[in-house]
Amino acid sequence: MAILGTWLALVARRRTGRFAARTPAGAFRIVIAVVLALGAGELVLIRVHLRPAEWLAAEFRAVYLSQRHSFADFLSLFQVAERNTS
Question: Whole-prediction pTM value?
Answer without folding.
Answer: 0.49
